[in-house]
Each structure stands twice: as structure tokens, then as C-alpha cells.
Amino acid sequence: MKSLRVLVAVHQELVPPESVADTEQKERAPWRTEYDVVSALRELGHAVRVLGVEDEIDVLRSACREFTPDVVFNLLVEFHGAAPYDQHVASYFELLKQPYTGCNPLGLSLARDKALSKKILLHHRIRVPRFALFPRGKRAAAPRGLAFPLFVKSQNEEASLGIAQASLVRDAGELAVRVAFLHENVGTDAIAEEFIEGRELTVGLLGHGRARVFPPWELVFASLPRGAANVATRRVKWDRDYQKRLGVLARRAQGLSGNLELEIARTARTVYRLLGLSGYARIDLRLRPDGTFFVLEANPNPDLARSDDLAEAAEAAGLSYPGLIQRILELALEYPAAWKATS
């Protein structure tokens, strides 16, 4: 592909530095994705401009008019501090007739609503944990038909926001406390689902329609304390000292039979299609010891840092990090947006 003009839209506080030579690993954590993406784009020979965005939508329009990008590399995952508004940012690019990377507005909307997405998957006989929704302003009563322990999380947030060891609740009292915590501290509805004992897997996908599926990745804990659950809490994802203490390692899932890996890939691709996803995404699963697995959720905004699951799984499948970023650009240009049919 020829050199492209690429506008990289990032949150203002995550604008990466030109160099990381004088920064510690801890300092890089918040903006490592942004730095890696921008570095790869420049390595590929594209003309790159980084745009820091706060809460003013006009800066996106102005930058698109002034810089006239071929593609916007969209790394905005919220707006006005609200995660569900990511779909409206994508919609804004659609209205500007501006190609952009990542998922389309409908896919963002369906995947973001964890209760709705589970209902869609259940309708199509995809295994998901049984669950109950607890809207803000209502107390949590023990739901009928669900067996403890339950896992409580935000209904529409990502990046493990609000997830901790305390998210695993074993009775009605603990459930009420955790739901109230999410309502008050995260500010969203809460969802409680039956906890699936087993392995924590993710599957990365890339493409439109019949997406390419990467090998399943697994979150492994070498030194998990007795009684703790092997879940991707907020600290597990973002606290490097905590990761070292627990021996956290993300690697290709081992010991899966060929048939099981094939079934996981087929299910991941089906979930991708049913939720209308495009560009790239990650599907999160739990695998029981007996080989049955459950889809937890789909993440249409997975991290794109070189060291994250999606990039490492792509590398295992033969796609280098610059190759992954290049393919994401190509998919942005190939996406059949509605405005293209009317132009």
C-alpha cells in the first residue's frame, strides 16, 4: 500500500511522547498502545499526525478538514468520560464520510451492552453464563434461577473497570454490597453472572464479515493466592508490580485438542458476526476442565499495544505488529460504509 495520511485520534492525556528513552516502564503503561501504534505507522512510512481529544467534537472535524487524512486511526474509547459514547465518535466519522479504524457504530453498541449481547447470543444457542441485570437506583436481591458464586461487573464498561477479587460474590449479602459499589463508584448498571470455574481465554479477530481468527490466548497465574479467583481484575491488567507478584503471564493456550481449538474459533467468528463487529475485536471466554466453554463478552476496543493479547496472537499466526497495524488501515478503507453507496 502507498504511504497514507493517518490522523491518530487519542485521548488528550494519552498523547505519547516522541521517544521513550527517558521513561520508566511504569510511566509508559497508560499510553503504551498509543506509542506503539504511532511508532508502527511511522515505521510503515505513513504521514502521521497525532490529535489529542478531550470533550470537544469540533477538533475532530477541524483536524479532518485541515489534515485531510486518508484514514483516522481511532483510539478513542469514550467521550465525556462515558464509555457508551464510543459508538457516537464512530458515527461522527461516518457523517463526515471519513474512513476510520476499528468497529462500526452498531457493533460498538451491541457489544458494549453486555446484557443485550448475551441475549442475542443465547437466542443463537451460544453458551453464555446465566445472568441478571441490576439497574442503577435499585437494590440487588438474590436473583432466582442463578447459582452462587456470581461474578459482578459493569454492564457497559471495559478495561476491567470495577473488577476486583471482591467481584466474585458467594451470597446475597456480598452481591448487594458489590452491586451498590458499582452503582456508586463506577456509575453504571451492574450485571451478575454465574461464575465459570476454569481457564481464562481470549480470541482475537481481524476483518469484516468472515473475520480472520487468531490462536486462543490464555491468562495464566503462576502464584495465585489460595482462595483467589483467576480473573483479569483491574490490578491484574494494569499494575505491573501486582502482575509480577502473582506471576501473571499471557500466552498461547496450551493443551487444547485440535477439535476444541476449531470449535472455539468457529464460535468466536459466529459471535463476531452476530454482534455486527468489524475491523478487529477480542472475544473473552472461560473454559471448564471438561472442555465446555462459555462466551463472557466481546470487546470491540481491545488494546493494541505490541505486548497485548491481540498483537501477540497475531504474531503467533504469522502477522507481525507492523503488519497488523497495516491490515487495520486497509480494513478501514475497505469497510462498506453506507455513505459510500450514496456518494
Can you walk through the features of this model?
With 343 residues, the protein is of the alpha+beta class. The protein has 3 domains: 5-101, Rossmann fold; 130-194, Dna Ligase, domain 1; 198-331, D-amino Acid Aminotransferase, Chain A, domain 1. It is 36% helix and 20% strand. The protein has helices at 25-28, 32-43, 58-67, 86-95, 105-112, 114-123, 172-186, 234-238, 240-246, 258-274, 309-316, 321-334, 338-342, and strands at residues 5-11, 47-53, 71-74, 131-134, 150-154, 168-169, 190-194, 199-206, 212-213, 217-221, 248-252, 280-287, 293-299. The strands form 3 sheets. Strands 8, 9, 10, 11, 12 and 13 form a 6-stranded antiparallel beta sheet that branches. Strands 4-7-5-6 form a 4-stranded antiparallel beta sheet, with helices on one face. A hairpin with a 5-residue loop joins strand 8 and strand 9. The protein is globular, with a radius of gyration of 20 Å. The model has no long low-confidence stretch (mean pLDDT 93).
